[in-house]
Amino acid sequence: MKYLLDRFIKFVWTDRPIRQRGTVIVAIPVICLFASLIAIAGLRDSTIQVRRRIDNNKAILQETNRLLKTVVDAETGIRGYGLTKRREFLEPYLEAKKSLPPLLAKLKVMVLANKLQAQRFEEIKKSSEQQITFLQNTLNKLDSSATRVQSPEIIQVFAQGKLKMDKLREKIDAFADASETYQNGLERKIRELIDLTNFVQVAGLLLGCLGAAAAWYLFDSLEQELRKREAGLQESKTRIQAVVDNAADGIITLDEGGNIESFNAAAEKIFGEKADRTIGSNLRRLIAQPQPDSSAGDYAIEYFVLNPDAKLKTYQQETVGVRSDGTRFPMELALSEMCLANQRLFIAICRDVGGRKKAEETLRKQAQMLDLANDTITVLDLNWTISYWNLGAKWLYGWRKSEAIGKNIHELLHTEWPQPLEEIQKVFFERGSWQGELVRTKEDGTKITVASGWTLQRDEQDQPLAILEISNDISDRKCSEIALAESAQRFRDTFEQAAVGMAQASVDGKLLLVNQKLCEILGYSRQELIEKKFQEITLPEDLAKEVEFLRQLLAGEIENYCIEKRYVRKDGDLVWSNLTVSLLREQNGTQFLMGVVEDIRERKQAEESLRLRAQELTWMANSLAKTTNVLRKRNQELDQFAYVVSHDLKAPLRAIANLSSWIEEDLSDSMTEDNVHQMNLLRGRVHRMEGLIEGLLLYSRVGRIQVASETVKVEKLLAEIIDSLAPPSGFEVKVEAGMPTFVTERLPLQQVFANLISNGIKHNRGESGHVKISVKELDNFYEFSVADDGPGIAAQYHDKVFVIFQTLEARDQVENTGIGLSLVKKIVEGQGGSILVESAEGEGATFRFTWPKQPISREDKTAVETASTQTMSASAD
After folding, report:
1. Helix, strand, coil % (nearest 5) of the chain?
2. Dist CA 42 CA 197 (whole Å)
3. To pair with 646 at 20 to 30 A between CA atoms, which of 250, 426, 828, 842?
4. Cα–Cα distance between 744 and 755 in angstroms, integer?
5. Mean pLDDT per 10-residue interval, the chain, length 877 residues
6. Which residue in 216, 237, 218 sits closest to 18, CA to CA?
7. d(CA 106, CA 102)
8. CB of 240 closer than 8 Å to CB of 334
9. CB 149 within 8 A of CB 83
10. Model pTM?
11. CA–CA separation, 762 and 753 (whole Å)
């Protein structure tokens, strides 16, 4: 199994080219990153879908409240018509008949996505339609001439209408509670998706870190492999040099006519001739004459021997050699051409056939090692002209042998020298060798750094003949050396400029290297610290703990340790510090400790201050909890009060109104004009009380009912409000140009404008008047103004007008509940704005209020409501 696994790893990874492996290494963290992004995108899409459902549910709640208001207004209108027989009371009912069908249709479409909501809505729809039908029947009875307005039959009909209305309210309240629960579930799901998204992001970060660690590990493996290759190349270079120096073949250099120019020692041994006696003679004297029956070809050595005028050809074949004593021996003769400057030379390599097998094997190895080695091997004449160019040179520099031979190597490769060439040549010819680094340019224009070694070949007279150059590419190693030097410099800079104390120490605790920050923390000079051990400057009470950690670190049980300890400064003061210690190992096996010392005296002082502050905050939290419980109880009491007002006070008021109508009807013959006036006053008080109750309910609901934000065109909104108020013919309500369009809660803004405009009309004592509405844009708010030309408000009453139930005129003169402006103030402040009045007696009044350009957040709204509740509670106390 292990063998198969090793074969698989070798096939998939080890045998792959370095570029492919580098691509895989880089792809690991990239794939982790893209996987994280895809997962986050999917979660974001799910979150958006849930948010859409939340927005739809909010819209459903808003439209349901509108439905309830429409039906309530219709029922109230029928009752008002039944009591007064005034047709204007029928307008809410007629409007409800017109707007209710499309509103129900719209709600039906909106609840289709939620089966439970759809079922509950069908009940609401049925009850709403039944209520409208019932109101139509009630209206028909009221219009019948045979039915009295205050007859027991009509009273019973009104009682049935109240029961139906209460049932409809209960269904709508149940529907709203279910929708609120559904919305809470959606919001909880949103939070879960957000938490999951955060988890995916953290997981993606961890995967990226793991991928980066894997990439680092793989790159380190590649670096180790490259080092092994460099070692192999160096070994190959050494072997080739040994082969060249210990060649056993006879090497003869010839001119173009075959005359011997050089004769090496091996050739002397083979032919039994001294070099000085052989040089200058023709190669023919060393080759036996062919037999008479032998056939000679144009390129055969026999043809060259038999024809003195024939030019020497390049070839390789076996022939018969002649020694100086006349004996013949079989030999292998190889001629190769070598161009030096402007002449053609040939190198003849002779080998005794008796050792042919061994010689062939040796030559084969030499050829492979010279031609297939990764090192570049070139033979140059003394003018640096290339006479030999192996495959390693072709692979490295890009030029083929045919393109390189005969050219000056330094001109071909644009050699850049570490020092002047004249100085290098002087040292080279004196010593016979030279080694160094050169920068050369490849065929494609790329510059590389090579480690080059030159060896000078000399003849028997110790005269230089040729130059053997062996080079290898060290560009990667140079980059590594530069990077290592830069890294070392960055470490030194970081060490010295660090904002914390840093030190290197031996494993026995002696300080070897410290930075200036540590000297400042401990109050010693650098030289004084280097002469000490850390045990000498540690408070004895903290030493035992650190020594135990150090033992575990040296034993390999932990990788590092971090402790808080106290040092003893030179002046005797104690220094609280946070110490982090790691064990570092060098390649030669040496170990030393690296410590980082952070001065935490201020943090210790801050921790003590925080502890005292935490005690204060605990006491404050308990006080706030008690205050919150009190406020909660107050809110419950307010809710109970609103419920009592809504359900228990209206019924007696209706009974009083009915009784007054019956008394007036029964005593109609005997009632005086003063009695009729008193009865009208009585019913007016009843209607005023109902108005006060409705206003109080509206005031208590402000800010407690969530209303969805929408795009509001203020100019269109004002037109609808003015149309609904139907000002008298003598009044002009003017809306100035430039009204904004922005996203906000429509209903609260509509209530504010409706109250301010209606006040401007209602309190004007003349038969005609003007109301002007304008706007001014601020940084984060719009400032709206509603100005009238009424009687105005004296300065001492500017604050009083915003107090609930406060009026400046008698209610018998102007029918007023005293809630409108307080309701306006509460709505505006609940939105984060403010309102004020500018007026003087007899000069009209201008109400200015600010409204935020962006919808206020739920948290801010809650804070405003809490502050308002506390203010009300304080006022009540």
Report:
1. 60, 20, 20
2. 9
3. 828
4. 18
5. 69 66 72 78 81 81 81 80 78 83 82 78 80 81 60 72 77 78 81 81 78 74 76 68 58 82 84 85 80 47 58 70 84 76 75 63 62 78 88 86 89 89 87 88 88 86 86 78 68 69 86 85 86 86 88 88 88 88 80 86 81 83 79 69 61 69 74 75 65 57 64 90 82 90 87 85 79 92 91 76 57 52 84 88 87 75 52 42
6. 218
7. 6
8. no
9. yes
10. 0.30
11. 14
| Sheet order of strands, 250-254 included | 260-263, 250-254, 343-352, 328-340, 316-322
Question: Residue 317 has what pLDDT?
Answer: 77
Element counts in the chain: helices (H) and strands (E) = 24, 22
Nearest Cα to Cα of residue 595 among 607, 608, 581, 583: 581
Q: 258: which residues sit within 8 A by CB, 6+ positions away?
A: 282, 283, 284, 304, 312, 346
Identify the three-state secondary structure at position 349.
strand
Using alpha carbons, select from 126, 121, 130 the residue that is nearest to residue 75. 130
Q: Would you state the structure tokens that stand for residue 352, as one six-digit string?
A: 């005794």
Only one residue has tokens 């570092």, namely: 584
Element (H, E) at 769: strand 769-777
pLDDT at 385: 92
Residue 311 has what pLDDT? 60
The answer to whether the beta carbons of residues 243 and 42 sit under 8 Å apart is: no
| Residue 134, pLDDT score | 82
Coil, helix or strand at residue 561:
strand
What's the rounded Cα separation, in Å, for the pair 363 and 361? 5
Q: Locate 84 and state its tokens.
A: 């007064």
For 398, left (φ over 0), alpha (ψ -120 to 50), or beta?
left
- Quote the CA–CA distance of 510 and 530 in Å, as a whole number: 7
